[in-house]
Amino acid sequence: MSIASKVKEALVGLKAGRVTLDYPAQPRPAPENFRGRPIFDAQKCIGCAGCANNCPAREILVFDVCQEIRILKYLGRRCTYCGRCADVCPEKAITMSREFETATNKIGDVQQRLDLFMSTCQRCGRCFKEPSPLEQLKLKGYRVDDLENERWIFRSRAYLESEPVVDDIKIELD
Amino acid sequence: MLKNLCQKMFGRSLWVYHANSGGCNGCDIEVLNVLTPYYDVERFGIKLVGSPRHADVMLCQGPAMRSTAKALRAAYDAMPSPKLVFAIGGCACGGGIWHDSYPVLGPVEKVVPVNFYIPGCPPRPEAIIYGVAVAAGLVDKKVAPVEFKQLNLPIPRYHPSDLKGRGEMVVYEKAEKI
Questions:
Q1: How far apart (Å, rounded) are the C-alpha atoms in residues B112 and A173?
Q2: Overall pTM > 0.95
Q3: What's the fold here for domain B2-136?
Q4: Other beta carbons less than 10 A from residue A73's beta carbon
Q5: Does residue B176 sit at the A interface (CB-CB below 8 Å)?
Q6: A151 bridge partner residues
Q7: More confident residue, A150 or B82
Q8: ipTM
Q9: Nearest-CA residue of chain A relative to B63?
Q10: How far apart (Å, rounded) are the C-alpha atoms in residues B100 and B150?
């Protein structure tokens, strides 16, 4: 009885054949509707910072160096590839690629940085009409995110100190 | 240099220890998926062990939480040297989507030194295998930081000092450059 069950098991194993993927040797592209890493197209970007205001993980930072140059930095560390930045982009400058092989030994390798030229209105220096109070909550306008420490700065708060706020790990480990 | 060191030190089977410090279980399922016969990672000699004292590699999933940071550090200290740490998933790499909430301290690199990062939420099983292959020196990493600069400004700067009164009109003198 036991020999028969072993033979049956061997037959089942032979019938299935080899199922293991030969992955790192053979490429295996992701399916068509897979959302991978977002790719920023600097030629199309107008610097509206809609992606930065809608990113749930707050991975896109915006820093206005002066009136005319805006730096947009995508960090990509905790990006969940939700695609909201690609949805809100009015110029379709962000495409969700099917790229998933982003394993690296330096986390700075996944970031993208765009230095954008922002033209000013020739008459008033501003380009937007006064937003309503509800729109002011959503649209943060002139942004001063902290590029050195890679942190999002809320406009309603004062500028945070250069030391990280959550540095109580030493207390926890004692 | 790190690659050569890895190949020398970890030339044989890697035994991995699977530490979840407060993730949502998504990355755990992908790691278990990697160990199934379809993505058979045991052909690289990788085996899941239950104790950090038997392990060469720690797979960290989930952010460093206020409640589990101490335990994560203790598990790291219990591993025999040489040891590697993989941060799998967006939480372990960057603190996750609730990075600024009270119980989350941040990415696991605040608690333990991380050698390899596999971002994704959760990463595909192929991405995890790719990360292991990058660590073992089988393939090269594909990502590099991208920087783009618009060096020449397309529009000349507007200077209000160039506005000149001419009769009843106010005329901008260098209008042909705009």
A1: 11
A2: no
A3: Rossmann fold (3.40.50)
A4: 21
A5: no
A6: A146
A7: B82
A8: 0.72
A9: A78
A10: 33
